[in-house]
Write a structure and sequence with these properties.
Rossmann fold, two-stranded parallel sheet, seven-stranded parallel sheet, about 325 residues, 12 helices
Length: about 325
């Protein structure tokens, strides 16, 4: 199969696979731009975005995707399988979506992260070799390698966006459920990793923006792009900024410590996997996003706005459900 530039074969349909943190934002952003958007989910979505259509299909089955979706212009892979299941789930999902894109003559934009690089003692740039030393990082590196090979063979127009740790209101964000409820309830904030090492943080709205731009701009294919992100901040600094936004002046923050981290990982599969990538927080972990900023004339969401947007869902949830409810979020999405 070779790539076709015949616009008559295109439907101007943008298919977002996955309706999680990034997928939902991307679908909303494109709908606001009057694009025709179809979101693929594993089950029914209760809270739907106006102007967006939905379909149920399996992201790990090429046939399921083909059966459910008409001709498509651009596919956005925003799937996020459970963290501890990446080794078993991602290869199936990635292969199915790659085949679906090729069979549909569609372009593919994939949402990824920095895990594939592995440990480096330098600022991360897109040209660094991926040399991950742990399973989840190796999975992401292999996914890109396979996609890049298809691009080099002329079979698939593909690109990948890579962001650092997200600032968002969920249980997977290090600065979400683990921090804000504690500050609101005047409980100690306990964080994994070192508190005072510089770290790049990415707003998922900026991930969605870059994905939309790449889907429309022919300069992006065949290589990865780092998501425009603000200057690095330590975990302690981020907590201080969140506390300031909440008008909380008396709070306590401390590191969990390596021994307790290992113990928690024994009982919690998510923390066990996070511990394997603890190099990201035990020393400087900084990403450079200059290439995307300069090439596409983008800028990250202002830091103060990012913190405000992070905090707002918790305040709205608390106002609606009461103070005690904020301590019972579990894995609830806000």
């Amino acid at each position: 199969m070779t790539l076709s530039s015949d616009s008559s074969l295109k439907s101007n349909l943008h298919v977002v696979i996955g309706s999680g943190t990034v997928g939902e934002r991307l679908a909303k952003l494109m709908a606001n731009e009057a694009k025709q958007v179809l979101v693929v989910t594993r089950s029914n979505v209760i809270k739907r975005i106006p102007g967006v259509n939905y379909v149920i299909a399996s992201a790990s089955s090429t046939q399921s995707l083909i059966d459910a979706i008409p001709r498509v212009d651009v596919i956005y892979n925003c799937v996020n399988p459970p963290y501890q299941e990446w080794k078993s789930e991602w290869p199936k999902i990635s292969n199915a979506i790659n085949k679906f894109a090729m069979m549909s003559n569609a372009d593919l934009v994939t949402c990824s992260n920095l895990y594939g690089y592995g440990p480096y003692d330098v600022v991360l740039t897109e040209d660094l070799p991926q040399r991950a030393t742990w399973t989840n990082g190796q999975v992401r590196a292999e996914m890109w390698q396979q996609a890049k090979e298809l691009f080099d063979q002329g079979k698939l127009r593909v690109t990948e966006v890579r962001g650092s740790d997200y600032l968002c209101a969920n249980e997977q964000s290090r600065m979400g459920h683990r921090v804000i409820p504690k500050l609101l309830l005047n409980k100690p904030v306990q964080l994994l990793g070192a508190l005072d090492q510089p770290h790049t943080w990415t707003d998922p709205d900026d991930v969605a923006k870059l994905m939309m731009v790449l889907g429309a701009d022919g300069r992006g294919w065949g290589r990865p792009w780092h998501v425009p992100s603000n200057e690095p901040k330590t975990q302690r600094e981020v907590v201080a900024d969140i506390a300031n936004q909440l008008n909380v002046t008396d709070y306590r923050v401390k590191a969990v410590g390596a021994v307790i981290e290992r113990a928690l990982g024994f009982f919690n599969p998510l923390i066990r996997e996070l511990n394997k990538g603890n190099y990201q927080f035990n020393k400087p972990f900084v990403m450079n996003s200059t290439q995307a900023i300069e090439t596409f004339r983008l800028s990250p969401k202002p830091w103060n706005k990012a913190i405000e947007d992070l905090v707002l869902p918790y305040l709205e949830y608390m106002a609606k459900n009461g103070l005690d409810s904020i301590n019972k979020l579990g894995n609830k999405r806000l």
